[in-house]
Amino acid sequence: MITKQSSIGTPVAPPADLNNLLEPIKEELQIVEQWLVSNLVDDSPFIEELLQQVFKAGGKRIRPALCLLSAKATANPPGKLGRLQIILAVLTELIHTASLVHDDVIDSASLRRGQETVNRRWSEKLAVLIGDLLFAQASVCLSRLMNPVVVGIYGQVLGDLCAGEIRQMRQQFNTAMDFEAYIQKSVWKTASLFAAGTHAAPILNGSPDEHIIAMKEYGLNLGICFQIVDDLLDYTGSTEKLGKAAGSDLSQGLVTAPALFVLRRGGEAARKLEDIITTRQVATPQGIAEAISIIEANDGLTETVQLAREYAAKARQALTVLPSSPYRESLDGIVDWLLTRTN
Amino acid sequence: MITKQSSIGTPVAPPADLNNLLEPIKEELQIVEQWLVSNLVDDSPFIEELLQQVFKAGGKRIRPALCLLSAKATANPPGKLGRLQIILAVLTELIHTASLVHDDVIDSASLRRGQETVNRRWSEKLAVLIGDLLFAQASVCLSRLMNPVVVGIYGQVLGDLCAGEIRQMRQQFNTAMDFEAYIQKSVWKTASLFAAGTHAAPILNGSPDEHIIAMKEYGLNLGICFQIVDDLLDYTGSTEKLGKAAGSDLSQGLVTAPALFVLRRGGEAARKLEDIITTRQVATPQGIAEAISIIEANDGLTETVQLAREYAAKARQALTVLPSSPYRESLDGIVDWLLTRTN
Q1: For position A196, which CATH number holds?
Q2: Which of A49, A132, A156, A171 to mutate to test the interface with B (most CBs of B within 10 A)?
Q3: Domain that holds residue A185
Q4: Mean local confidence (pLDDT), B204-212
Q5: B159 contact residues in A (CB cutoff 8 A)
Q6: Which residues in A lie closer than 8 A to residue B152 (C-beta atoms)?
Q7: Pairing of strands B115-116, B111-112
Q8: What is the complex's ipTM, to 2 decimals?
Q9: Average pLDDT over residues A108-116
Q10: What's the predicted TM-score (pTM) here?
Q11: Is A143–B160 a contact, with Cβ atoms under 8 angstroms apart?
């Protein structure tokens, strides 16, 4: 029986409540919801229906929240927020959702957060089209910002998302991957988009360079931490909350931090784990159970928690140059929330 | 036996040779080819290999050619061409190719121009990823132009491509479509991207407004004409050159100009054709042969030729405000070439 724990450990502060942290941007997040389902490409009701279907499943909207908090925390005075910042938050969630829809086609996934994926619910073909539609909506938003630097940042994000997906595809069942490559993949797949949002918000505000650089650092480190926690939750999270079985990534050949820590240390445990992965026994229920118990017994999970905390500390450190405000406090609190999240 | 003709009729001028028309931008088109296969998203050789595989099939590169000719024809003095115009030409072809790759997944197409499609050759999954990669490459190019107006034009193009594909999907086997909807769909699917390239080139040149407006008009009308000729070639082109059987669009339920002309006129022929389409007999070899012979016997093809010529004349008319140059001559000649093209 695989042991499951609901969090990755007790942080210094008590577990953060996400709703409280998002309170200072509650109204703006509601406007974001309206924009997400607005048809920006033509005047047909059908496209709006498609968007409503895609977004009705909800989600934490962590990326738009980070855009809005970054915008408010770096505004002069803090808390001021223009319409362009709402559009930035919307386009960031649109790109995230588009990439999820296409990733689910590429990975033949049938469940995401316990709900049927678009490809499963309708068809692979419609999922391709819906992903493209979401990217198109994001492009229309991006063009409305009228800011070439922000266009450059998001152009690179689209490239990073593809690079991450291609790299992940090519590294399946590869036990020789090093930590540098693992962190790089996490940047491409996740942190690049987190950083784009927190970085672009102060650019749109015309904030001082040190704030712009700090918010990019914050987003990048928070994004890497988010991906590490995601990879950890794949081992420790509840099947009910994640909508997938424990070790699901590894059983598909995705070697992430918990396994990498054990493989890197060498010795008998590493050799045994390597054997289970490279011979693809991990794809069987017995193989994955054995792999997980080797990883647990050899501190793979506790070392991963430590790694996540290192990036969390870097994210928190970046915030110190900002003036004190409720928005900076929420950005700080989100780091804690991230370390204690369970899905 | 279905009659096939190699061209849609003899234009006033002798058939144009595309190579001669492209002579003034020959060197620039070679630079475009190098850019198309350049990895702009990361430093891995794998992505470059993928791009080489996608682009080695070649193609007429008509969209980049139009960008470059529009740029040279509206430059001061005519013929001057900056690096940004090359990037514009590249991103226009990247978006075109990306949309073809995804359309082939959506339509489950296995052949394009007689060659295996990406989804057929590799897999649907890789085709999704390659399409996204091409869009990402285009976004990186777009951001390098540092021009918010051009970003807006291309953002709208992405929306138009999706709107066109969705509309086409929903109008399958629909005989009640009117000509306005048919032309609108042609704008979304084809003319919008043609116009984006010819329109953005003089914007990047800082040309006078009347030249900018004229080149948008040229691209839009040429694009509509291109789509009408495409729809006609589906009936009249050689199977060998097109890589698909005659009437292939109609057999899949795509009602285009040749059928619309017959349906619009009413009477016995229209009723018979409507019946074959709505009962989906067109999907059978016998049904499609009967549909084609009704369309031929009731002037569906000759009226479509006339429609294409009307848009060709509008495109040519738009050019008259430009100063005389070899580049304007080529833009004019491309209208002729388009009317006489056979694939």
Answers
A1: 1.10.600.10
A2: A132
A3: 18-325
A4: 98
A5: 40-42, 136-137, 139-140
A6: 143-144
A7: antiparallel
A8: 0.90
A9: 78
A10: 0.92
A11: no
